[in-house]
Each structure stands twice: as C-alpha cells, then as structure tokens.
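User: Show me a protein chain along with its predicted structure.
Assistant: Here is one chain, sequence first, then structure tokens.
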Amino acid sequence: MLAETTADLPRIEARMFRWMAVLAILGVITLLATLHFQIAIAFAVGACFGILNFHWLWRTGTVLMEIQTGRVPRMTVFLIVLRYPLSFAGLVILYYSGWLSPLPVVAGVLVPGGGVFVESLFLIGVSLRHDQAA
C-alpha cells in the first residue's frame, strides 16, 4: 500500500509544484500585507524563476531516466548546459538594472526548496501513518 501512495512520481511531482505555488502565494500575500509592494514583486519574480528552474531540472531528469538509447536528445543537452548560465544571467540582469531588490528575488528562488521540504514531510507522515496502521 505504501509503495502505491508514495512511489507515484507524477503525483509527487504535482504535489511538489502545488506546495511551491502555495509557498510563493503565501510569501507574496504576507509581503503585500506589510505594504512592501516592490519586495513582493521581487519575491514573486524570484519564485517564478525558481519554480521554472525546478520544472526544467525535473523534466531533464525524467528524460534522462526514461531514455532507452545511449544518445541523449539535443534539447535535453541544451537544458542541462544552459540551465545555470541562464538562471545566473537573469539574476545578474535584475541586479545591475536596479529594477528589483536582489535579496527578495533570491528568497523567491528558494521557494522550490521549501516545496520539496514540505513534500518530504508529507511523505514521512504517510509512512508513519502506514507503519502505525500495520
């Protein structure tokens, strides 16, 4: 039973993205409630960068795990090679342009880590409930 509930990667992926969205929305709402509009925008931009980056990485990992040949698709290679430089370039552009404060952007970029952490806690809870029921 536990393997059926926790090893379903598409469901885990969907839940992780929901947790990330919830954390990003809660962060933006909290910042707006404190009347820090520009910081809320910077946090939202960072969260979008982070979630997009995580999605990009997840898709790349999925392709690599499912590949049946020794040849990696060109698009996957492109995503692997350019993931960090493009993310870094986006942050550098925001920093040097002065449009947004860099600290809330970086905080937003960390939202996927929070989503993965919450999903980990969820899976631990499922495992503990299963062990107590058995």
